[in-house]
Design a protein that fits this description.
13% strand; seven-stranded mixed β-sheet; 315 residues; 9 strands; elongated; 10 helices; alpha/beta
Length: 315
């Protein structure tokens, strides 16, 4: 007969064996888990290294493409705008480097840049809209009629269009030089634009925008985008054609190029480019101006809403 003492000892032995088994089993399991985690870590590390090398290689290829495009751009556009006048507009978020690069390429195409107007961010701010409307009405030269639309972009284009663009039919200035100078000075003194030197009327207008990526964080990006789309569209109606050329990201839903492309009334007449901060985009902008002279409009760049990279090469 098994005594109580033997029973307790047997039970303790069983529990001890079970505990030892659990410890040994968990240790083995932990080792397998740790081994698997280590293998996964090594695999992910290798993938990261491979992706990093691939990214570096792609950046190198992109840099090479950009250098090639920059070198061949003058040959690509040469003569396309021979003896044609272009007024160059730019917004508050366009760098001096991009602006100068675009001007050089326009001149390489044979175009005459007849003036530069740099728009200040204040002109597109919603809280300054009433002030802009009043100023536009006050500066409007005699004989010029503003569009019936009341949005600030269209009204500002309705003022600057006749001031800076030649008549579509005869190609003659629409405003006397003295009235043009007075109106442009008024916009500058109001803090809404900066005029670089003298501005002479031209049949074409190129509106450059950087996409306002930093300003998007502060709010109001959609309002400024709508302003630019309607402003450029009204310039187009004032002369022989216009192109809205934005930096990468400008074709997003709340970007100026994106807004222009989404509005059929605008996109049917105004040409757009969504990568004007690259050599390829600048070439597209110049060729799009040439296309505008031929009475056609198109949308170019790398965004999904583009018809192709450059005019003549449509998807």
């Amino acid at each position: 007969m098994i005594s109580m003492r033997q029973h307790v000892i047997s039970l303790a032995a069983v529990l001890l064996a079970l505990g030892v088994g659990i410890v040994l089993g968990s240790t083995s399991l932990s080792e397998r888990v740790l081994s698997h985690v280590g293998e996964e870590r090594d695999s992910l590390s290798n993938q990261v290294d491979e992706l990093g090398a691939e990214r570096t290689a792609l950046r190198g290829e992109l840099d090479g493409v950009n250098r090639f495009s920059a070198a061949t751009a003058p040959l690509t556009v040469r003569g396309s705008l021979a003896d044609r006048g272009v007024v160059l507009y730019s917004t508050w978020d366009v760098s001096e480097q991009d602006r100068a690069g675009m001007r050089r390429l326009l001149e390489e195409s044979g175009a005459q840049v007849t003036g530069e107007v740099q728009l200040d961010r204040a002109v597109a701010e919603p809280d300054r809209a009433d002030q802009v409307r009043k100023l536009v009405t006050r500066l409007l030269p005699a004989g010029v009629q503003l569009p019936t639309a009341t949005d600030v972009g269209t009204l500002t284009g309705g003022l600057l269009g006749p001031l800076t663009m030649a008549d579509q039919g005869a190609g003659a200035p629409q405003i006397a030089p003295e009235e043009r100078a007075a109106a442009l000075t008024g916009l500058s003194e109001g803090g809404f634009a900066t005029v670089v030197g003298e501005v002479r009327p031209a049949p074409l207008a190129l509106v450059m925008t950087g996409g306002d990526q930093a300003g998007a964080e502060a709010g109001g990006a959609a309002d400024r985008a709508a302003f630019l789309a309607r402003f450029a569209s009204q310039l187009d109606r004032s002369g022989s054609g216009a192109v809205l050329a934005g930096a990468r990201g400008s074709a997003d839903g709340d970007g100026p190029v994106g807004v222009a492309r989404a509005d059929r009334a605008v996109s049917s007449v105004l040409s757009t480019v969504d990568n004007a901060d690259t050599p390829q985009g600048r070439v597209a902008a110049v060729l799009a101006l040439r296309e505008q002279l031929d009475g056609r409009a198109g949308h170019y760049g790398t965004a999904s809403s583009a018809q192709g990279a450059v005019p003549g090469v449509r998807d």
